[in-house]
Amino acid sequence: MLGIIALVGVGVGVAAAVAGFVYLAHERLGLAGWGLAALRTAALGALILLLVNPVRERPGEAAPPTVLLDASLSLAAAGGRWDAALDSARVLAGDRGVILRFGDGVAPFDTTPPTAGLTLVDQALRTAAGRSGPVYIVTDGEIADYASLPAALRDDASVVLLVRDTVPNAALLEVVIPSRVRQEDSIPITVEIGTWGPLSDSVGTLEISATGRVLLRRSIPIPTPPGAARRTVWLPPGALASGSHAVRVGLSVTGDSEERDDVRWRVVTVSEVPAVVVVASPADWEGRFLMRELAEVTGGDVRGYGEIGDGRWIEMETQQPVGAATLRAAARTAALLVTRGRWSEAATRRPRWRWPSGAAGVRFARGDWYPVRRVPASPLAGPLGVVEWDSLPPLTGIVPIAPVEGEWVALSARLGRRGAERPVIVGHDSAGVREITTAAGGMWRWAFRGGASREAYRTLLAAGVDWLLASEALLRRVPLSATNATLRGHPILFRWSGERPGRDVELEMRGPDSTFVVSLRFDDEGTATLRLPPATYRWRVPGLTGASGVAVVESYSPEFHPGPVTAMSSAGSGRARSFLVGARDRWWLFVVVIAALVGEWAWRTRQGLP
């Protein structure tokens, strides 16, 4: 700063010396010369100030305050102090201050009850940082991102803490139900119960219902407050009919002061037969990854059975033992049977996908086998033609097979990228029964590696399933899906798979009281969001076959039960907000330049000077 002042001083001195030389030494105007030299010095000095533009800080203590009001659902929960927060915000803001609401974003002030399902203050503080005057945060202290804020941003704000009152509360923290089951299966339902405050009862009533019909009502013990515990109950086979159901799980406890966190919803799809059955003998990595990725790719009911030795079988998802009769029955009724290894007992006329292994008695040419980039003509050529095969890990071995007349080859591989091509994927259609054989091992490493490798694996599975089930209606994959259950204060997430639509998608929503149409605009990642009040909604896209589903916005929010207090009451750093003011911000300097130059010109004219 001193250097800038010195520079301006030197410039003004030089300007004064030049003006004095011109009018006193060269023109010899005497007293008039002194006046003209003063005008030129003033004009040139003001111009130098505007060119250099020195700045200084101007304090902003007198600016009106900015009040950030916590508008998350915790302030409106039982024991919350929303009315006190409103009063405090008004007093702090006064007549000139600004009040902003924050939760999962920033919004202008209004007095409506809180609706935000998250408590985040970072964006609100950054907005307030652009304003002058002190900043106040009125909150109950349960701010999720407060501890991770930059110190400079956090310490400048004063925190007015209104901790919620301790009240008796029991809540269903979590409910776990399988999203897809078969009609003959029992349905496990695991609930996590949390308690706070002086509850007078140690037993609650759990009620499970669907479509207005009570499926189960049972007394269960609840943990001593404060605490949490998990309980599991089972619905009997056939409790739910085939189709998709919104299942309501409710908890009733005497003396509970907050009812909105006592009900959870889950969507369960019941099928009469499993769409896909995976039988892995033995239950190796290939079989496990095959089942997992098939379940994600198809979006259907996929059951996996694995042999763990000596004829003992387990269900791969639940790890529960199953009998041979159950296994054979599932294989006979599956829309698609996928077999890995040596098991081949099922006689079925349904589509089948065989994955041989290097088990005893099966020839297995081990080595690093690399898929050939050139994809031959086959029913799977379209999807497989876009895969970058050179970027995949090598296969660990191949079972030698020789395609016969009527069979097609979808993928081949070479040992060490040299030598003759060997078939990897072979298929045929015999009298309307379709079958594919995968003659390679080690594909599970593609899924394990993730990224482009996993996408190649999933592309292969999707293409194979599409061809095998071309005439089946049990697996119908559609481009649009939605989150089944959404917490209160959060949006429903819709996801579009495949190429993003070039226009907005018209969605018909049927709620409890009305049917309405909304437009969804998908981003570059194929996602769109929709905020709705708590209720059960059935949605569909007119004109798009199969694009329908059930979406539930729960009345529950984690904000309704006490959370950790991260923002403690504080007075802020006390540092005054200041602003940089430059010479160009002084309008009168421009007036000095113009007035001095005009005055000098007029005076020179009267003196007869050019």
Layout of SSEs?
Elements: H1 2-26, H2 31-52, E1 55-59, E2 66-70, H3 82-93, E3 98-102, E4 106-108, H4 122-129, E5 135-139, H5 151-155, E6 157-161, E7 169-176, E8 180-182, E9 187-196, E10 203-210, E11 213-221, E12 227-235, E13 243-252, E14 263-271, E15 276-281, H6 285-298, E16 302-309, E17 312-315, E18 321-322, H7 324-333, E19 336-341, E20 352-355, E21 365-371, H8 381-384, E22 395-398, E23 408-415, E24 418-430, E25 433-438, E26 440-441, H9 444-449, H10 451-468, E27 480-482, E28 485-486, E29 492-496, E30 505-510, E31 515-520, E32 527-530, E33 535-540, E34 548-553, E35 578-582, H11 587-606
Strand order in the largest sheet: 18-17-16-15-19-20-25-24-23-21-22-26
The coarse overall form would be flat
CATH C-level class of the largest domain: Alpha Beta
CATH A-level architecture of the largest domain? 3-Layer(aba) Sandwich
Structural class: alpha+beta
Average pLDDT over all residues: 85
C-alpha-based Rg, rounded: 37 Å
Q: Tally of extended strands? A: 35
- Residues in β-strands, percent: 25-35%
What is the first-to-last residue Cα distance? Answer: 40 Å
